[in-house]
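Hey, can you fold this?
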Amino acid sequence: MKEIEGERIFIEDSGLFVEALGGFPGVYSAYVSKTIGFKGVLRLMKGEENRKAYFKSIVCLKLKGEIKIFGGEVESRIAEKARGKGGFGYDPIFIPKGSEKTFAEAPEIKNIVSHRKSAIEDMRDFLEYNLK
C-alpha cells in the first residue's frame, strides 16, 4: 500500500471461486468478467455436476502503520443458466446457499448476505472499538 502519513487507507478486492474449476476465476475474477463474462464461466461449467462456489472479499486496512485484514465469504452454487436482470458481474449465475434465486433475481438477498458487506462490517467494528 502507498504510504500516506497520518492517513487511514483501505483497499478491497473480491473474487468468485468455483470448486469444479480449481478455484478459477478466483483472483482473476475482474479480468474474466471483462473478457469471457459469466457466459464464459457457464460454458466452462457445461455438463459439470459439482456447482459449488463462493464469493470472497478481503479488505486491508492500514492504520497507524499497521495492516489489518478482514474477510467475508458467501457460499453458493453456480446456476445452469443466467437468471435475473439485477446486479452486475457474476450475479446472474450466483445462487447463494439457502436460496433458489440468483443475486440478479434477488438483490435484497445479496444486500443481506454480501461477502463485501461482511468484510466491511468487520472493519467498521474494529475501527469503532479501536478508535474510541
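Oh, and this one too while you're at it.
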Amino acid sequence: MKFVELREVAEFIRGITYKPDELVENFSENSAVCMRTANVQKNLDESNLLSVPTTLIKNDQKYLLEGDILVSTANSWNLVGKCSWVHNLDYKATAGGFIAILRANGEMINPRYLYHWFNSEPIQIQARNCGRQTTNISNMDIDRCLSIKIYLPSLEEQRRIASILDKADEIRQKRQQAIAKLDKLLQATFLNKFSSKNFKPVMVQDLLETEKSMRTGPFGSQLLHSEFVDEGIAVLGIDNAVKNQFQWGKPRFITEQKYKMLSRYTVKPNDVLITIMGTCGRCAVVPEDIPLAINTKHLCCITLDKTKCEPEFLHSYFLMHPTARNYLESRAKGAIMDGLNMGIIKELPVELPPLEDQKAFVKFKKAILSQKQLMDLDAEKIDQMFGSLQQKAFSRTL
C-alpha cells in the first residue's frame, strides 16, 4: 500500500486536431468518430458525434479503447478535468484537440479504480487547479496533473473498491434515470394533449391581465450594482429562472426607499419569468410565497389574465410546444446577440386550449413536480452518500 504519482500508473494521450472542412459523414468508410468536449459528460454523450478520416490519426495509440477515460484539457476553468468513462464502443473513435485520453497501465492499476479516483471531488479540484488561464480558456498542464499522487493498494483491493463504487453509482444513476422519465412523461403528456390540435391561435399579448402586465426591469442608471444592499427588497435575475424552474440564486437586495422608485417592476405570485439576455429563452413561474421583489432588465415578467391562461400552462407551452420553440428560435437568432425582447414575446403565437383543459394539465403537472421534488431530495442524499464512499475509498477507510 503506497502513494504514487499518476504518471507511474497511467498516461495522457493528447487528442488530434482537424479542420472543419476535413469532417466526413459519421460511420462512413475509413472514418473514425472524434470525441469533443461536448461529449465529455457524466456519462459519455454519444448523441452528437462528428467524424474524421482515419488518415488524420497517425498513431494507433490515439484510438479509444474500452476502459479509457476522456478528460477535458482545454475549457472554461470550472470544466477542466471533467471526465467520462469509455465503454465498449461498436465503432472506431479518437479524441479531439481539447480533450485527452487517460489510459491506465492495467498491470498496476484497475481502470475503474482509476476512473472513480479521478472523478472524485478532491481530485477534480486538483485537476482544475492544473489549468493555466489564457483569455477565457484554461489549458491543463498535463505534466503537473501527472504529478498528482494516488493511493495504490493491491490490484485485488482496487477491484474490491471499484466494485463497491460501481454498485453505489448504479443506484445513483437509476435514480437520475427515474427523474428523467418523469420529465419525459410530462412532455409526452403535454404534446399529446396540446400539439397539432387546431386550438384557437392567439398571441401572448392577448393573455395579459392588463396592457402593462408585461415588463422588463430597470435599465441603465435606474438601478446600479452599487445600489445593491445586504438585505431588503429582493431583486430577481437570470439565475432565478435559468433552470426552467424558480429557484433562489445569488442574493440581491435594494432598500425600501429605492423600491418606491422602482415599484412598477414588482414581481407577483404566479408571474411567468422569461430570460431575455445572456442565457435567453429560459422560463419559470414565480411561487405563491414570493416575498416583495422586483426583476432586473434581464428578465421579462408576465402577469396573465387567469380567466384565459394558466401560468403553468404557458410555462410548459413556452418550453415544449413546437410552435413556440420554432418561433422563439427563429426570432432569437435574428436578434442582436441572440437575445429576446418584449416585442418578440408579445407576438409569440399561442394555440390556446380551453381553460378547463389547461387546469387539468396543471393538476397533473403539479403531481409530477411534487413526485420529482421528493426524488430530487433522495438523489441528493444518494449523491452525498456516494461522495462519502469515494472519500473513504481513497483515504484507506473503506
